# Entry
Amino acid sequence: MQPFRKLTGIAAPLPLVNVDTDQIIPAKWLKTIERTGLGRGLFESLRYREDGSENPDFVLNREPYRRAVILITGENFGCGSSREHAPWALLDFGIRCIIAPSFADIFFNNCFKNGILPIVLPQETVDLLMHEAESAPEPVFTVDLEEQLVQRPSGNEPIRFEVDPFKRQCLLEGLDDIGLTLQKLAKIEAFERSQRLQQPWLWPSAA
Amino acid sequence: MSGPKTLFDKIWDSHVVDVQEDGTCLLYIDRHLVHEVTSPQAFAGLRAAGRKVHRPETVLAVPDHNVPTTDRSRGIPDPTSRIQVETLRRNCAEFGITLFDMDDVRQGIVHVIGPEQGFTLPGTIVVCGDSHTSTHGAFGALAFGIGTSEVEHVLATQTLLQKRPKTMRILVVGELGFGVSAKDVILGIIGRIGTAGGTGHVIEYAGPVIEALSMEGRMTVCNMSIEAGARAGLVAPDGKTFAWLRGRPMAPKGALWEQAVAYWRTLPSDPGARYDREVVIDASELEPMVTWGTSPQDVVPITGRVPDPARERDEKRRAAMERALAYMGLEPGMPMEEIRIDKVFIGSCTNARLEDLRAAAEVVRKSGLEVAPNVQALVVPGSGLVKHQAEEEGLDRIFVEAGFEWREPGCSMCLAMNADRLQPGERCASTSNRNFEGRQGKGGRTHLMSPAMAAAAALTGRLTDVRKLVA
Ligand code: SF4
# Structure
């Protein structure tokens, strides 16, 4: 996983609530056996018209937002399915940070596993940032994970955000959790020995 | 933690392998279900890192999302779907995982076959790379959906890193009226608490109405916990749970069964156990429910009307409603019963078990009607075994003679990854769980409801109060 320390770039405003994973990446794109190449399907039904041409009204089809690396959006972003194709599609498009008042749980976790930082901020603050993303001539923001600050194009006071310390560390270092967990193999095996004694029915081979 | 514990606390606490300084727990995973869509990249990751599956015997795999529901003798025509199913087959062979392949009578929707086989057991933690894993909570298992990176983590380590969620109890009191089913209960709950109402929580459903539900009904309720935003849904195991599981192929047998049941009886929440949030729903007030919009919370009783966004005070909510109505092609104030439909889908992990098919067939039989002209109605059983048993009972004949199509098991038109899908603008009465834009095919319009209500809609060609047809 690519580490996430400091990200500077365009932020795109997407003022919709309850954006679900079917909107982020429709089911037909889930047939892939790869993690890459899904950027083309990102927000497909919003981004393209019936005939396959780009919908010029959609934010990610407009300059400068085509180059967005940050998305600012409404509450309950990523609700619906567990498909990790949603963060894969965002990442493949170039989005590495999403700012919203709230996220659906599974999507939120999936982001961290892919080097995407989801930031939760109060609605009023998100509204403020959304406004800057819409109106600044060059809506360039900097998200600094080390300092936990979002610097805005207006140059006004940076916004502080909270993030789970363990998840932050993993992102900063680009850590692979499987490797970390396998270091605890002795503990896992000790747990297994005890469960096997106490709940032998879960261990058919012990019967 | 001592003092009274909830069912959730008991399961969680008995699965903690390690706790990090910040409170993140390493949880042991007992059972892992795998399907073809969310697993290929996980297996590829294992292979790339030279890792093995830690306990292959705790993993059960099945292709369900991409499989055709018509004649399977010629395999899967769509090459991308075929590659995904073949990849699952290869991965299972390579990593030593049990697979119920397409020609196996035990094949079906992953959340139908887990319980059916007795693979899902009370007091366990069950995961799957699929959000509707919450279904298995009906057995008093902590069951939740995970992403593909987590699938890989569980395969490699038999554990997951998790923060302890909050708990919420939804007490369903009163009594279900005539024609009101488990699906109406959960749609009613989501209408009340909203699609983000359960975010960060595990919901325990309790109270007389939940106790009175069959295991199938409890699965329907737990299934849609994710539509309420919750991580998982749970129901305390009881005599009904044990009777349902007894003798299932993968359930414990003999002395182990007795020992397991003795343990399972200790699982229900202790009196006085505390929840972070409590909600009480009076089921006596519920009617058969239908959705009008593009979110499962957009729900009204069938006797109601399409709501008017102009009366919504919250600006964001109003915009969402207007967008939903435009997509659904509906006018505010229109009676729900006047909405005409093109397709009917009776299926999905929410409502494709035997009891659901019986409920739908009962409406067909009692009404004596046939599928309305210009309506295509699919019945897609949840598994090969459900299909077989339904055929033993003659349900297939009731459906086919009335003009329904009787299909092979799979996810089918729930998410349109196979050939079963809506065309743009088509409207469907569906027993599935999501009415998102494009969920059942690009431009397709979905109304969620119970199997009995979907059967009624098929027969009249419009959304219909089933109570009128079977009274
Ligand atoms: S039936 Fe629908 S909701 Fe259930 S697992 Fe299949 S696609 Fe998902």
Summary: Residues B 64-65, 109-111, 130, 132, 348-349, 411, 414-415, 432-433 surround iron/sulfur cluster (CB under 6 Å). Chain B touches chain A through 75 residues (CB under 8 Å).
